[in-house]
Every structure is written in structure tokens, then in C-alpha cells.
Amino acid sequence: MRILWISALIAGLIDQISKYVVIHQMELWRVLAIDVWPPFVNFRYGENCGINFGLFKDCNSAWVLIALALLICGWILWWVRGTDIPRLGLICAGFVIGGALGNVVDRAIYGYVLDFLNMSCCGIHNPFSFNIADVFIFVGAIGLVFLTPDGKKAA
């Protein structure tokens, strides 16, 4: 379980540091857009009150979404403790938890999640932005899908 906590800490710190550097130090909050490697990687300032794809975008629901994220993190911890999961699976679980907690920190401080990454390609313009926490959550969840044992419980 120690590796889970270490990977969660690393994911959360990388997320918060990246947001601080890009949004505050590079002043993305002020300029709103920075082309890094157009059209593939761009920084676009975003305040996400909801969850993916604009769901629950009412900014008054921040505390509900914080509670939901904490419940999901608790469920993942409970599930991992009762499952014979490999080391890489524990790292993936830590990524999900660390990413979720990175977004929880944003909601607690700002009332919304700070997004800044925007990727487009091949003539297709992507209007959505995301952050490093979202990447950790996505990678961790995919890893858990493929690294989860077939229902065997730990002894």
C-alpha cells in the first residue's frame, strides 16, 4: 500500500505544481491562451465548475463534487485493500486518487477546477481543456481496468 500513497502524492504534487507554473507564473489566467506546439499542444485557460464534457457545470455544486470525489477515493482504497492487485495496479490506483485529490484542492480553493491543456490535431479543433490531474485519473483508470485480477480476494 505504501507505493499507492507515494504515487498518489506524486500525482497530486505534479498536478498542483503544473497548475501553479502555467496559470500563475506564466499568467495564463491573464492572457488566456499560449500556443506551445500548435495545433498539438496549447495552453487555454479554463475554469471547470463541473466534471467532464460540461456535466454538472453549476459552480454551486463544488462541495457536492468534492464529497463525491472523496467517496470515490475511499471506495478505491477499500477495494484495493481487499484485492490481490499487482504493484503496477497499486500505482495506477494511486494515480487515480492523487489526480482526484488534485482536483479536490482546486475546488476547495477556487470553487472550480483549473484547466489549461488543450490538444488538437489533423484539422480537428478541440474546444475542451483539461489538466494533469485528469491525465493521471485517465491513465490510472485504464491501468486498473487491465491490471485488475479476476475477482480474487487477498488472503
Report on this structure.
By secondary structure, the protein is α+β, with helices and mostly antiparallel strands. The chain has one domain. It is about 55% helix and about 10% strand. It has helices at about 1-25, 30, 60-80, 85-110, 130-145; strands at about 35, 40-50, 115-120. The chain has a 3-stranded antiparallel sheet with strand order 1-2-3. The two termini are about 15 Å apart. The model has no long low-confidence stretch (mean pLDDT about 90).
Protein traits:
155 residues, alpha+beta, three-stranded antiparallel beta sheet, 5 helices, 3 strands, 57% helix, 12% strand
Describe this structure in a few short sentences.
The protein has 155 residues and is α+β, with helices and mostly antiparallel strands. The protein has 5 helices and 3 strands. The longest helix is centred in the first third of the chain and has 24 residues, at 2-25.
How are the secondary structure elements laid out?
Layout: H1 2-25, H2 28-31, E1 33-37, E2 41-48, H3 62-81, H4 87-110, E3 113-118, H5 132-147
Antiparallel strand pairs: 1-2, 2-3
Helix pairs in contact: 1-4, 3-4, 4-5
- The largest beta-sheet arranges its strands as 1-2-3
Name the overall outline. Answer: globular
Mean of pLDDT? 91
Contiguous uncertain segments of 5+ residues: none
The largest β sheet comes out as: 3 strands, antiparallel
How many DSSP H or I helices?
A: 5
Total beta strand runs:
3
Percent of sequence in beta strands: 5-15%
What's the domain count? Answer: 1
Specify Rg, calculated over alpha carbons.
17 Å
Helical content band:
55-70%
Structural class of the helices, strands and pairings? alpha+beta
SSE order: HHEEHHEH
Termini Cα gap: 15 Å
